[in-house]
């Protein structure tokens, strides 16, 4: 029986050669799209996030955002050229909270909003106080849903609100939707 990890590494290796096309802004060949899609969505996201770590020190995170956007655009383009197989068992990553550097991820998320904004969001979710204002909503949406959900879960796990988990999840969703609507307008 072949080792699944070895198979995954062998599958990724040719994709690394394809990355040169992205780095040098060359056309991404269809053969590379096939390799990208074969890795699966989780692996693609992890590869893009791995690239972002090289640009941690960028003050405003513009390079990180550019890499993420280009990664998403590339995935979408390749998905149209080479639709993924519905019956394929793609390698799955563990939930983010079980991966290395989770604490760094949370700290990075927290740095994307001001303390005042964070308090607004927390009070709105956990204490059902006033709605989050437009400026804070812009920061929250810019931070991203993954960060929002991870921070809410981390706060929820502190225990103070343990009995209200379902309510916290609903309120968190309400705040996120409220902010998305405000930012759209």
UniProtKB/TrEMBL annotation:
<protein>
    <recommendedName>
        <fullName>Prolamin-like domain-containing protein</fullName>
    </recommendedName>
</protein>
<dbReference type="InterPro" id="IPR040220">
    <property type="entry name" value="DD11"/>
</dbReference>
<dbReference type="InterPro" id="IPR008502">
    <property type="entry name" value="Prolamin-like"/>
</dbReference>
<dbReference type="Pfam" id="PF05617">
    <property type="entry name" value="Prolamin_like"/>
</dbReference>
<keyword id="KW-0732">Signal</keyword>
<feature type="domain" description="Prolamin-like">
    <location>
        <begin position="109"/>
        <end position="179"/>
    </location>
</feature>
């Amino acid at each position: 029986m072949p080792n699944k990890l070895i198979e995954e590494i062998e599958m990724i290796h040719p994709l690394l050669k394809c990355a040169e096309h992205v780095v040098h802004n060359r056309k991404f060949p269809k053969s590379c799209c096939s390799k990208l899609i074969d890795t699966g969505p989780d692996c693609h996201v992890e590869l893009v996030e791995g690239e972002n770590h090289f640009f941690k020190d960028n003050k405003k995170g513009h390079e990180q955002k550019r890499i993420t956007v280009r990664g998403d655009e590339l995935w979408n383009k390749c998905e149209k050229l080479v639709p993924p197989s519905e019956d394929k068992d793609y390698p799955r990553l563990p939930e983010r909270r079980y991966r290395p550097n989770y604490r760094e991820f949370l700290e990075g998320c927290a740095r994307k909003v001001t303390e005042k904004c964070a308090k607004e969001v927390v009070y709105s979710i956990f204490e059902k106080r006033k709605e989050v204002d437009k400026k804070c909503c812009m920061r929250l949406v810019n931070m991203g849903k993954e960060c929002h959900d991870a921070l809410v879960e981390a706060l929820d796990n502190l225990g103070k609100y343990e009995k209200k988990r379902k309510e916290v999840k609903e309120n968190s969703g309400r705040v996120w939707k409220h902010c998305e609507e405000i930012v759209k307008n």
